Amino acid sequence: MSSFTAIVVPSLHRALRALPAVVMTLVGLLSAVARAEDPVAVLITGPLSAKVGDRVAFEVELVNRSGRPLEKLRVIDYFDKGFHHDASLSPIEQKGTIDLAAGTSRRLTLDFLLDEPGRQCHRVEILDQAHTFVGGATSCVQVTGSPITVAAPQSTPLPTTPAPLSPAANGYPATTYPAAPTVPATPALPPAAIAAPLAAAPLAAAALAPPAAPSFTPPPLPATTPLATPQPPVTASVPTSTPLPATPSLELDMVGPAEVLPGSVSEFVATVRNTGSVASGPTTLEFSWDDAFTPLEASEGYKLASSRVSWSLTSIEPGGELRRQINLRSQSTGAAGTAARSCVRGVLSGSVGGVMVADESCVLIRSNTPRARTPRDAGLRLTLADCDDPVIVGHPTTLICTVVNNGTMSTGRIDLTVVLPERASLVGDPSPSRVRIDGTNVTFDSIPSIAPGGQSTVELAYRIPGSGTAKATAILTGAELEGSLDSSCQTTFLAP
To answer: What is the pLDDT of residue 92?
Structure first.
């Protein structure tokens, strides 16, 4: 099982990443103000600048400043596409949850490979059991380096239209002008004269003048479309990606009993497996447990601290595994007849890339102590009565308190306290005489257990200095009883 697994989380950070830099700065300032009141402070330590291809590590410290224990915290990391994580695309979530006692902290390490230049950021957010945001922080790295570019193909220039050639260059002879004929000849009519209508001219033509030297005009070249020079096909040089280095993949599996009784010994075993293709390197395995357990034994090489034990594990080859065990004695954590859930957690840290793997095993501790009975459930009845009523001021009245066991079991040791009225004073000795007096409270200690169908009686006398109505109350408790039982009576004192 990987320490980080991909999850489907609303990609709000992708939308924020598309905002202008000024808006992102304002959001960062507002987040910093909000974090000041978060129950969990998130502190991220890492490089501020790096190069493309570097592998960078960020140390994340979680501090519980809420003043109360926080349980089952989820750790989620969102990061830009310029970051590459071996476990998954953004976002990633730590497997398992984290418990933080009040005022304590926990450290994690996140490892990334930088793929693209520019400002690359990642954000760590902490959610509680109700999926409520309780803390977060953002860290950015300025990444430099020349991005890989596609080589531009060498294009062949297109042919240009050739300039017109001179007549000699086209094979025509140089222009020559013939000598004037010695014998007059009838010159050929120019084309314009042939095309024009014949003029009504006299038959006798005038003597012709020597013809003018004709200007030679070469025939026009035929209009041709120049052939395009064949061009080589354009091919783009596709950059080859450098394969990421192989990394180990560690899984942690915690196994323990499902239900135990108080006082029994439970065995919890952690198995660390390397499902990757390379050796894992040295790591650290740590167990922690709830207050309901007491440590007894552990696998060899352990280091014991308060409510936790750890081992330094050697390198694990691909496909290999290591096991560590601890034996814990369970204690009763709830009322009689109830069951309480307690857990043992395992955390594997120090692996390549700083990835942490966590798992836990929880057990029900079912109390086997008999459920305590109330006095009424035990069938006890308590009465308090005065022997003299009314009474002249200055004379005493005697109180008789009776405890009757109408149940099917003995009562066990019981205690009886009689609360006298204010300004009352005892007259004579109570019966039985072993009592403790605290102001107006008279306590009969350790009344013997009353068998089913039996009863026990105590007596005492008191008086008050003035007239009026006085109230006395008897209260019954027991070592094997839950709660108390009481009874009262009132006496009228008359002026002489």
So the answer is: 87
